[in-house]
Every structure is written in C-alpha cells, then in structure tokens.
Specification:
Helix content is 74%, strand content 1%. The protein is built from 26 helices and two strands.
Length: 619
C-alpha cells in the first residue's frame, strides 16, 4: 500500500494541475509522482548538461554562419561598387563580343566554383588566414627585395592600404574610393577590406610614378626570376636534341646500331619521366629555386661523365644523369611563372619561356656542329657540364625565395585529386602522344630520316634540324600569344590543342605518304607542335589550383616524357627488323614505324574530343 503524503501547492500551480488532470487517463497523484520521479532522477543533471552543450554548439554555429553571410554580402557589395565605379561605358558595337566573353567567363567561373567545393577548403577563410598572418606595416613599407617579389608583381600596390594606430586601414582615394567612407564594425570585415584594397589599380587610374615603379618591378622579376629558369630550360632543350647532331661521331667511335643509338638517346627520357612525380612534389613543397638549383647539378655531373666515357655503359649512365638533372626545368619554370606573375600573363609567359628555351635546340644544330669541329664532342660536353653548374649556382643566388604560404599541404590528397579528375585523363593521352612524338622525332629520328630517306649530306641535314629548332621556338611564342588572345573570344586552350593536333597528324601523314612537298616543310610543323606544352600547361592551370601546379604539370609530364622514351626507343627496334643498305635503313621501315605511331595519336584525339560526364564541351 502506497504511503499517503500531504502536498501544499500555490493556487496557480494547483489550478494548472487541475486542468492537466482532466486529460484522459491522468490523475493529480500520477502527475505529481511523475514530476517527482523526473526531479529525483540521478542522471537528470547529466542529460540536461548534454542538452545545454548541444544547444550552445548550435548557437555558436549559427553565430558563425551569420558572420560568414555578413562577410560574403559585404564582399559582394564592395566588389560590385568597385566594378561599377571604375568600369567605363560599353559601346553598342562592342556589346556582342562582350556578351560572348562574359558567357565564357561565367562558364569558367562555374567550373572553378565546383573545383573549390571539391577541394574541401574555403577560399574566403584561406584569404582571411593569409592576410591576418601578414604584418601590414612591413608590407606597406618594405622595399622591392626578394621577399617583396614573392608576394606581388607591383609592391607599391600591396601597400595600397596603410595602417595607423588602432590597426584601421586608411585606403587611398586613388584606389577606387568607393568604400572609403565605410567604417568596418568587425575584424572580419576589416580583413576583407584590406584584401580588396590590395587589388591592382586599373592602368588608366594609376599615376605616372606608380606605372614607372610597376615597370621597374616587372623588369626586376624578369631578370631575377624568369630568365634564370629560362636558362635552365634552355639547357634541357640543348641536351635533349644534341644527340641528333653527334649521332654520327658516336656511331663511328663506338660502333652503335639503330637499337643502341635509340636506347642511348631515349634513356634521357626514361630518367626524366621517372623523376617527374617526386620533383613535382618537391617543387610544391620547397619551391622552384631550391629544387632546380640542386637537381641541375646532376646534369653537370652527367655531362662530365659523358665527356670522359670510354664505353657504351658509361655513355648510358651519363645520359641518364643528364635526364635526371634537367627533369625539373619545365616544371620549375612553369611553377615560377605561376608564383611570381599575374594569372592573366601566365599563358603568354609560358609561351615566351618555351620559345627562348627552344633556342637550346637551335644551339644543338649548326652552332654545335661548329664546336664539334674545334673541340670535338667530348669537349662540347665538358663545356655543357660547366654551363650546367654555373646555371645551378645562378638560380640559387639570384632567384628570390618563394612565399611560404604557397608550400604544398596534403601531397597525397593533391595527387589523388589530379589523377582522379576525368578531365586530366581526357587530356593526357593526346598531349602525351603528340608532344612526346614531336620530341622523340626531333631529338633523333628526324636526322636519321633526312640521312637515310632524303639522302641529304651532313650540311643539308643540319640546316633542316636548324629550321626545325627555329620552328619549335617560334611555335611556342605563337601558341602562347594565340591562347591568350583567343580566350577573349571564348576559345580556350583545349580547342586550340585539338586543332594543333590535327595539323600535326597531317604533317606526319605527308611524310608517310611522301607528299610532293619540300623535305623540311612537314618536319617544321612537327617540331612546332612540340611547343604545345604551352597549351597543356594552360589547360592544367584552368583545371587545378596553383598550389598543385607543380604536381599537376609533373603528372602530365610523366606521360610526355614516357611516351617520348617509348617512341624513340621502339622506332629503333622496329627499324632494326630491316637490313640497312649501304649503312641506311629503307624508306618502308620508317613509314611503317611512323604509321603505327600515328594511329595511336588519332585514337587519343577521338578520346580527347569526347565529352566527359559532368564537364562542359571543349572551348
């Protein structure tokens, strides 16, 4: 029998209890008992504390969301006001082209938003963290030196928002002035304003003094960053193509067959390809200055070993070390351009870099022949060893250190993201088969074709190789400028690469079918197509953030170099199946080998033009 206890209640509580007891199945005693049981529950405090913690977490998240929305709204409003304040009126005749360009930019914007979302990091938080980690007083007052060069092309524009007591940025009216009267009410908005105020001034709003300082900073970057990496890439081209010039002396001195000559030349590409992924990771982590200066010493050692070799094994080892030593040349140059120069200048600078570096291929023809006459091929490689060591030292001493904020994080994630991207696998087969073939043919088998099939003497052979080297250099500049200009009309580097590939196929077909053309004409087109790395680099720059630039280029360069190795060595093994006549392989041997390789490239082109699910059509 339950004990009977008297309970005294206030009139309001008693009234509420009476109302509750009118519910079906409820009594006053049962309600009071349930209330006491809940009150006396020993786990009640723990449960209530857990609920309080969850509610507090939800409250904090809502506050953070509210702050984020305010920052985004304020950023969009400030950007809109800035653009409206500085954008000149557009003539009616220019509106159709503007609409076309706007549509292309919107498509690119949408693809980059998708890429950022897939990356899993917030761009606005990255910006806030990066700006907060910068000492504004130092940035505003420092001279143009190594550290300043790593952060901006125009140091005076980085100092566009100076700081005063209280850390309130005072933005000059010349910077647009549209937000000068707005006083930030939070540190987050203050940070956003600081970032926006650092945007470069439009050329028509900059003063003469600012333009002069910007011009000087640009040229300082050219001499301290661009040209040293161009020199390293120049040596890479020279080493790649020099065997075509010295093939005769090497064959005579060591008694090399076609298969041995192909292996000796292509071993360069094998070690080059094997080093691409590690070099790409190191470039993203430590920057192009350190990696290029160290790796280039291997090329110096390889050239020295090649110069003193007295057997084929030492020649192979020296050539392999050379391939390893110049394996970072292209990627380091592309990475340096992305790090130190504005994004809109990247395609043109890439083309200019390849054009200047391709002069190394020019040097490997007639100029190298003149040196062969005076110092021999061994003396030539001794000079190349000295030049490689000097270039490595110059890069280490002259090039400024890259900003630490661009160091790679999450290497495994970066490589996984690159290799899991279907757009990469649409690009890689065509880029590798075309560019790799162009390199392999220009580096060795073009010279053999001119000698065996065209019957040219050494003087005529070298003239054709010289023309091909000039074509490669000019092609790089033409493709770089074309990629930059065509973007304004909504035509991206992907469409341009597909068109260049068709022209490349036609040139090879003309050689295979022996079309009635000058002997050098199709080979000039083939050499120029080797500069399509300019387009591949621009495509990768569109696909992936610049923090992954080294690894993305390395991932693709593995295919470029690997395919060049396969083509250069396999063509030698195919030719070996025919018996040389008076020291020359027959025309049908070359036609068969070239035709099989062309079929692979055409298949890669059809794969390239197909639409990948979830991506837009080629532009």
């Amino acid at each position: 029998m339950k004990p009977c206890i008297g309970v005294y209640l206030s009139e309001p509580v008693a009234a509420r209890l009476a109302v509750a007891a009118k519910s079906p199945g409820a009594t006053k005693s049962a309600i009071i008992e349930a209330a006491l049981a809940h009150f006396l529950d020993p786990d009640r405090n723990i449960k209530e504390a857990s609920i309080d913690r969850r509610l507090s977490a939800i409250h904090r998240n809502l506050e953070q969301l509210h702050d984020d929305v305010r920052m985004v709204s304020e950023t969009v409003a400030l950007q809109a006001r800035f653009l409206l304040a500085v954008t000149p009126p557009l003539a009616a005749a220019d509106q159709p082209n503007a609409c076309t360009l706007g549509l292309a930019r919107f498509d690119e914007f949408a693809s980059q938003v998708t890429r950022r979302v897939n990356l899993g990091t917030s761009l606005i938080k990255e910006t806030i963290e990066r700006v907060n980690s910068t000492e504004r007083e130092h940035v505003a007052t420092e001279p143009v030196g190594p550290e300043a060069l790593t952060r901006s092309t125009h140091p005076e524009q980085k100092a566009g928002a100076t700081t005063v007591a209280g850390n309130k940025p005072q933005t000059p009216h010349s910077a647009g002035g549209a937000w000068c009267e707005h006083e930030p009410d939070s540190r987050a908005e203050q940070t956003i304003r600081g970032a926006i105020s650092r945007f470069a001034l439009p050329p028509w709003r900059a003063t003469a003094q600012q333009r002069s300082r910007a011009f000087n900073a640009d040229w300082l970057l050219i001499f301290r960053v661009f040209l040293p990496f161009v020199a390293a890439y120049y040596l890479s081209f020279l080493f790649r193509n020099i065997n075509a010039t010295i093939a005769g002396p090497l064959t005579f001195e060591f008694g090399l067959g076609a298969d041995e000559l192909g292996l000796l030349t292509s071993i360069y590409f094998l070690t080059f390809a094997a080093a691409q992924i590690p070099i790409g990771i190191l470039l993203d982590r430590y920057g192009p200055r350190r990696i290029q200066s160290v790796v280039l010493l291997a090329a110096a050692a390889g050239a020295a070993l090649f110069a003193i070799a007295d057997n084929v094994l030492l020649l192979l080892l020296g050539r392999a070390l050379i391939g390893l030593g110049v394996s970072a040349a292209l990627m380091a140059g592309l990475k340096a351009v992305v790090l130190w120069f504005p994004a809109e200048q990247v395609p043109m600078l890439n083309g200019l870099m390849v054009m200047l570096a391709a002069l190394g291929g020019v040097t490997g023809t007639l100029p190298a022949e003149y040196l062969l006459v005076s110092v021999g091929w061994r003396g030539l490689f001794e000079l190349l060893a000295i030049a490689s060591a000097g270039c490595a030292l110059a890069i280490f001493l002259v090039v400024p250190e890259a900003a630490g904020s661009l160091a790679a994080k999450g290497t495994t994630i970066g490589l996984r993201m690159i290799y899991a991207d279907p757009r990469f696998w649409r690009l890689a087969p065509l880029s590798a088969s075309c560019i790799g073939t162009a390199w392999a043919l220009q580096g060795l088998w073009a010279a053999q074709w001119f000698s065996d099939v065209e019957g040219l003497d050494r003087s005529g052979l070298l003239r054709n190789l010289f023309a091909m080297a000039i074509a490669l250099s000019a092609g790089a500049l033409v493709l770089g400028v074309a990629a930059q200009k065509l973007r304004r009309y909504g035509i991206g580097p992907q469409a341009l690469l597909g068109s260049v590939a068709i022209l490349f196929f036609a040139a090879q077909l003309a050689i295979i079918l022996r079309a009635p053309l000058p002997s050098s004409a199709p080979w000039i087109i083939i050499a120029a197509a080797g500069a399509a790395t300019v387009l591949s680099g621009a495509i990768l720059f569109d696909f992936f953030p610049k923090e992954l630039g080294g690894r993305a280029n390395a991932a693709l360069n593995v295919f470029h170099i690997g395919y060049a190795f396969v083509v250069q060595s396999l063509l030698g093994f195919v030719l070996q199946h025919w018996t040389p006549e008076h020291g020359h392989y027959p025309e049908v041997a070359y036609q068969t080998a070239f035709a099989v390789n062309l079929a692979v490239q055409v298949g890669a082109w059809f794969w390239f033009i197909r639409r990948v699910p979830g991506t837009k059509q080629l532009r």
